[in-house]
Amino acid sequence: MTNANVLHWEATHWREGRVVAGLDEAGRGAWAGPVVAAAVVLPPDPDLLAKVLAGVDDSKRLSPAARERLAERIRELAQVGVGWSSAETIDEMGIIPATLVAMQAALAALPRPPDFLLIDHIPRALGSWPQERLVRGESQSLSIAAASIIAKVYRDQWMVEYDERYPGYGFARHKGYGTRQHCAALDRLGPCPIHRRTWAPLLQRRLPLDES
């Protein structure tokens, strides 16, 4: 994926001396767990990026092993910030506002504020930042693709930890998404504290007896 086409947006701003951050999220459509956002600032060196980040792509098109390997390379080469919103926050605010909160937190975690944002498309602008929201942004921008990998790896690791804390739901396998296994567990156990209670699949199911 590392070629002139997917660095077009970055290169346009690099030529003006701007620092560019790519942003993406993971978990927006899940039934449980947080929505996680990542911000990635790549060095303005296309040759280095082509060498070190060969294979970076939309996280959904990569195997878990490839994502882990590439996430490590991205962290070594780029500036990375991660933010999240909990299931409780998603229930309180709605998924789009909660996603924007997670993205703001990811930007705040960077060593310095960027000058321009490239964001995988989201219906609302991210604050007053100068930005471009790109449909299928992971295919148009290496920075966004890198952010998608970081967000996915971080969230997947979190869901594995939740699987140990809330056994029986299969979080390590389906990562909180609406699979048959997840549906069966909800019917059997009811929702747990990390489920998004306002989401339609959860509204028809009983609450847990003990949320401690």
Q: Can you offer a commentary on this structure?
A:
The longest helix has 24 residues, at 142-165. This protein has a five-stranded mixed β-sheet. The protein is globular and about 55 Å long. Mean pLDDT is 92; it is low at 207-212. The chain has helices at residues 8-14, 46-52, 64-77, 87-93, 95-108, 137-140, 142-165, 171-174, 180-189, 200-203, and strands spanning 20-26, 35-41, 79-85, 116-120, 131-134. The protein has one domain (5-203): Nucleotidyltransferase, domain 5, CATH 3.30.420.10. The protein has ten helices and five strands, in the order αββααβααββααααα. The protein is α/β, with parallel strands linked by helices. A hairpin with an 8-residue loop joins β1 and β2 (35-41). The termini are far apart.
Helical fraction = 40-55%
* Series of secondary-structure elements, N-terminal to C-terminal: HEEHHEHHEEHHHHH
For the record, give the distance between the C-alpha atoms at the N and C termini, rounded to a whole number.
46 Å
Write down the domain tally: 1
- Uncertain segments: 207-212
Determine and state the CATH class.
Answer: Alpha Beta
Count all strands and give the number. 5
Summing up helix and strand content along with how strands pair, one would put the structural category as alpha/beta
Q: Within the CATH hierarchy, at the fold level, what is the topology? A: Nucleotidyltransferase, domain 5
CATH architecture: 2-Layer Sandwich
Number of helices: 10
What's the quaternary structure here?
single chain
